[in-house]
Each structure stands twice: as structure tokens, then as C-alpha cells.
Design goal:
GO terms for molecular function: dTDP-glucose 4,6-dehydratase activity. Belongs to the NAD(P)-dependent epimerase/dehydratase family. dTDP-glucose dehydratase subfamily. The radius of gyration is 19 Å and the shape is globular. The longest helix is centred in the N-terminal third of the chain and has 21 residues. The chain has eleven helices and 13 strands. It is an alpha/beta fold. The protein is 43% helix and 16% strand. 48% of the residues are buried. It binds nicotinamide-adenine-dinucleotide and thymidine-5'-diphospho-beta-D-xylose.
């Protein structure tokens, strides 16, 4: 099977390429990635001899058309992915996430190629901290940020192309990922690399917001399961019952890294900051054989800390740039 992975030099996309290369060695994988600030092509070093990397944008209709025509499956990870950046400069989010997805859809429609579209739980908006409910596939989209609005827009385009043009596609919306190779602008790697540099963790607002953490390998195993066992036209929510407040994540990191429990700062909140995300992944678990393998957040974080400790050259330049942006944003 010839598989085109858009955004395959980013955090989750590169994890997918590595995981699929290990679990499905017969797949021929091509990565299409614009190599933005968020890309780390070095993440693909272990598979450079067997994976083709094409530098280009999903917004380029001719390139997308040519690559889609040459593959049997497209797994569409490419996106601008960081909420804080979307609040600062929304246009790249509209361009890549909406226009880019439109280009992919049109190419898939022309060539009959199977598509799996990667989305996020953030398209459903947020839940109150004291609301016991969780998102399901039936929850109406209600995005809060420019980032999540562009992801919800892309999802609506995919669903319309399924209904109107019968393209062979599936969608998945996953909760917050953590693990190796995540860009240091994101919450967990920002705090790990900060602590390694002797900088106290920075919690937005009161630190009480809740995210539903899942290990990146569990996400990518679920994507493989949906590709192989999912029903065309369907959306699947991916989550591993990992709800944890940001304060509790920082408490785990401080404990694992030998710092006092009160060694953090509360900083300016993110405008429009979603309170809580929570995923009900019963449908995925009922229709495929997928189960999360990482069920212990403390152990997963310990391994992630080790990875950042051992890969400073992978993250150092990006850290300098990310902190320059955060200091301008006052966070
Ligand atoms: P990331 O920012 O680490 O990687 C995104 C990749 O896409 C980068 O390699 C970047 O160069 C590439 N890219 C950006 N614009 C492009 C363009 N125009 N053309 C081609 N490539 C382009 O993001 P991530 O965290 O790995 O997220 C990947 C996908 O998973 C996104 O669609 C995101 O919405 C979704 N998602 C992320 C999470 C999470 O917790 N990080 C959770 C659920 C869903
Ligand atoms: O320094 C920080 N301090 C802090 O308290 C940072 C960077 C974040 N936070 C908070 C904001 C969120 O409540 O931590 C939480 C997680 O923040 P992010 O890592 O920026 O993730 P989030 O905004 O939840 O979005 C992530 O999950 C869904 C990904 O970035 C998205 O791509 C994905 O769709």
C-alpha cells in the first residue's frame, strides 16, 4: 500500500511514520510537509532510507494532485497546530487547515484515493469543570479559538465531501497528545525543557484547566486501526481516559524532576482558554481492536522527560524561538 502522510515531519505525523514503518513494514510511505517552524525532519532519521520526504505545501493544488494520484491512501495530519499562535496570527491557520484540506479533498475526489483526516477534540469546544459529561461523535461542533475553528471547518468540508461526492474517507478527533518529539511550544515539553534549564513551570490562569492526555503512540495505533477496520464515512473519537488538570501535570513533572511542589508560577491566561476536554472513545473501542497501551501518565511522562534530557540538540533552537514568542505574548 502506498501511503501519503501530510505533516509527517511534525510531532504526531512523524510518530505515525515511525510507528507504521515498524508495524506495517510493507507500506510505502511518502511524507508531504512544508517544513514550517513546527517541523523536525530529524525525527524521521531512523527511516530516511525507506520513506520519501517531499517538501511542499498542502495548499499547492498541483503538487497535492500529483502526489494523491500516486498513492492509495492519504493520512492528513498537516496543520498549523498551536492555539497561542492562532490567537497571535490566524491567517496561516485558515490557509493550511481550511484551504489545504480543501486541496486534499479535491485531489482525493478526482483520484478516488482513500483519505483519513486527523482532527482534534477541540472542535467540540469545552466542557465546564464540574460537568461530568464527555464528548462523543454526536457532540455538535462549537470551537472557541481560531485554531479549533479552522479544524472544525476542515472537518465540515470532509463530511460534506463524503456526503456529496461519496469520497472514501474517515475522520478522527483525538485528545491532547504527549510523548517524544513534540514541539517545545506545547505545554508538557515547554515545562520539561524549562525545568531542565532551571526555569519554573508556567501555568496559565489558575492552572485548573483539564486536558485528556493520550500518548502519541496510542493515537497513531488508533489511526492504523481506523485505516484497517474503520467504516468509511465515519468519525471516531480517540481518547485514553487521561483527564488531568494542568496543575496536576506540573505536580507530576516537578516530582519526577526532583523539584519542590510549589516551584511554578501562575502567568497571564490564554484568551478564550478552553476549560476542559474529555473524550468518550467507546465507538472506536467497539468497532476496532484498539486499546490504549499507555495507561499510566506518570510512567509516560517519566519516559518523555528522559527523551528530552537525551535530545537537547533536537529541541534547543526551537526552544529559543518559542520562548522569544512567549515573552512577547506575556506568557
Ligand atoms: P505539529 O505542529 O507538530 O506538526 C504539523 C506539521 O505540519 C509540521 O511538520 C508542519 O511543517 C506541517 N505543515 C504545516 N503547514 C503545512 C502545509 N501548509 N503543508 C504541508 N505541511 C504543513 O502538529 P501535531 O501536534 O503533530 O498535530 C498534527 C495533527 O494532529 C494536526 O492536524 C492537529 O490538528 C492534530 N491533533 C493534534 C493534537 C495534539 O495534541 N498535538 C491532538 C489532536 C489532533
Ligand atoms: O506554558 C503553558 N502553560 C499552560 O498552562 C502552555 C504552553 C500551555 N498551558 C495550558 C494551556 C492548556 O490548558 O496547558 C494546556 C495545554 O496547552 P497546549 O499544549 O498549548 O495544548 P492545547 O491548547 O490544549 O491544544 C493541544 O491539544 C489539542 C494541541 O496543541 C492541539 O494541536 C490539539 O488539537
Amino acid at each position: 500500500m502506498r501511503v501519503l502522510v501530510t505533516g509527517g515531519a511534525g510531532f504526531i505525523g512523524s510518530g505515525f511514520v515511525l510507528r507504521a514503518s515498524e508495524r506495517r513494514p510493507d507500506w510505502q510511505i511518502t511524507v508531504l510537509d512544508a517544513l514550517t517552524y513546527a517541523a523536525h525532519p530529524a525525527s524521521l532519521d531512523p527511516v530516511t532510507d525507506r520513506v520519501d520526504l517531499v517538501k511542499g505545501s498542502v495548499t499547492d493544488p498541483d503538487l497535492v494532485d500529483q502526489l494523491v494520484a500516486e498513492h492509495d491512501v492519504v493520512v492528513h495530519f498537516a496543520a498549523e497546530s498551536h492555539n497561542d499562535n492562532s490567537l497571535d496570527e490566524p491567517w496561516p491557520f485558515v490557509d493550511t487547515n481550511v484551504i489545504g484540506t480543501f486541496r486534499v479533498l479535491e485531489a482525493v475526489r478526482r483520484h478516488g484515493t482513500r483519505l483519513h483526516h486527523i482532527s482534534t477534540d477541540e472542535v467540540y469546544g469545552d466542557l465546564a469543570l464540574d460537568d461530568p459529561s464527555r464528548f462523543t461523535e454526536g457532540t455538535p461542533v462549537n470551537p472557541s479559538s481560531p485554531y479549533s475553528a479552522t479544524k472544525a471547518s476542515a472537518d465540515l468540508l470532509v463530511r460534506a465531501w463524503i456526503r456529496s461526492f461519496a469520497i472514501p474517507a474517515t475522520l478522527s478527533s483525538c485528545s491532547n497528545n504527549y510523548g517524544p518529539r513534540q514541539h517545545v511550544e506545547k505545554f508538557i515539553p515547554r515545562q520539561i525543557t524549562g525545568i531542565l534549564d532551571g526555569v519554573r513551570p508556567k501555568l496559565y490562569g489558575a492552572g485548573t484547566n483539564v486536558r485528556d492526555w493520550i500518548h502519541v503512540d496510542d493515537h497513531n495505533d488508533a489511526v492504523i486501526a481506523i485505516l484497517e477496520q474503520g467504516r468509511l464515512g465515519e468519525t471516531y473519537l480517540i481518547g485514553a481516559d487521561g483527564e488531568t488538570s494542568n496543575r496536576d501535570v506540573v505536580a507530576l513533572l516537578l516530582d519526577l524532576m526532583g523539584k519542590p511542589a510549589d516551584w511554578f508560577d501562575l502567568v497571564n491566561d490564554r484568551p478564550g482558554h478552553d476549560l476542559r476536554y474529555a473524550i468518550d472513545s467507546s465507538k472506536l473501542r467497539a468497532e476496532t481492536d484498539w486499546q490504549p497501551r499507555y495507561r499510566d501518565l506518570r510512567a509516560g511522562l517519566a519516559a518523555t522527560i528522559d527523551w528530552y534530557r537525551e535530545h537537547e540538540s533536537w529541541w534547543r533552537d526551537a526552544k529559543v524561538e518559542a520562548e522569544r514568542i512567549y515573552s512577547r505574548l506575556g506568557r
